[in-house]
Amino acid sequence: MGFPDFLCIGARKSGTTWLHMNLTQHPQIWLPPVKEVHYLDHRPVGLFGRLFGRAYYLRNARLHLRETAGKLGKGATSDDLRWAANYCLRRRSDDWYSSIFPELEGRLKGEVCPGYARLSPERIASLAQIKPQLKVIYLIRDPLECAWSGAASHFAKKKGARGLKNSRDEDIERYLARENSVNHLRYARNLTNWKRHFPDEQILTIFYDDLKSDSASVFRRVLDFLGVDATQDSLSEDAKHMRGSSSVAGRRGEIPERYRHFLAQLHTDSLVDLNDMLPNEHTAQWLDAARQARNA
User: Fold this and answer.
1) b/e for 267-279, b at 16 or more Cβ within 10 A?
2) Engineered SS bond to 57: which of 38, 134, 136, 175, CB 3.0-4.6 Å?
3) Residue 47's closest CA among 61, 63, 33, 36?
4) Higher pLDDT residue, 239 or 211?
């Protein structure tokens, strides 16, 4: 047991589910069967919270335990049930986090959790002491598109809501401007925090635009970065034959001009920082589009 060998730290709505799915199918990689453990970015909760807490990662843990118990002998093994029970019921701690990553010969252990991008510098420093050779993958996307896709998902799932079109403008703006929502998309600041404790060769930044245009090549870059087999034979069918952009984070429709202007006001300055840190055609295009929207 031990801390993971790599983390994918985000961003939300930038292809992390696609990456989790494809990494899970690689023969030299192991990931938890439940995406987004959320240990490093949340305080441990008591037994009542683990049993009844409303946070989605706690609900997912309970759901996984119930589903595994229901499949026992029908595809799920006793080892699967023990893992699910440990994952759901045991008090969360560094020992617990280590225990959910089994030592499997010839396989790397990893986790995909977008919330980790905005870990505090102190938490990242602690992680670097525990796992100095940790590798970090960061998928990033135009923050305006990312924010709008996230809002569409949030309001589609919100109890009593029926999507963005039927939500009040003030509720949408309040969600988009939440500190949590904005901090997820401050890519340069997040990267700076991670780069203080991990060298550049241990951090891989992937642009969503590249994922859309040639996702199979991007996946091979990830495998090369992790140091595992990236030949054609090692790729799953999903990785060999991508289904286009619809398989990567999904589309949520065009951003109405009102909200494009609102989002540009929130994110243009951080895009300046990102373009200074990682100057390329993608960051330049995102920044130019945001400036135009802000000035419209």
Assistant:
1) bbebbebbbeeee
2) 38
3) 61
4) 211
Given a cut of 70, whether residue 161 has pLDDT beyond it is no
Q: Tell whether the model's pLDDT for residue 247 goes beyond 70.
A: no
Phi, psi of 35 (to 5 degrees): -70, 145
Q: CA angle, corner 112, sides to 19 and 251, nearest 5?
A: 50
- Cα 291 from Cα 296, distance rounded (Å): 9
Mean pLDDT across 220-237: 87
- The letter for the amino acid at 282 is H
What Rg value do the Cα atoms of the chain yield, rounded? 20
Distance from C-alpha of 200 to C-alpha of 262, rounded to nearest angstrom: 33
Q: Amino acid identity, residue 15? A: G
- In angstroms, the CA 62 to CA 68 distance is 10
Q: How far is CA 115 from CA 42, 278, 289, in A?
A: 9, 21, 26
For the 6-44+92-295 domain, the top CATH level (class) is alpha beta
Is 41:144 a contact under the CB 8 Å cutoff? Answer: no
Hey, what are 76's tokens?
A: 């799920």
Task: Tell the burial category of 281 from Cβ atoms under 10 Å away from its Cβ (0-12, 13-18, 19+).
Answer: exposed
Band the pLDDT of 244: cuts 50, 70, 90: very low
Domain boundaries, the chain: 6-44+92-295
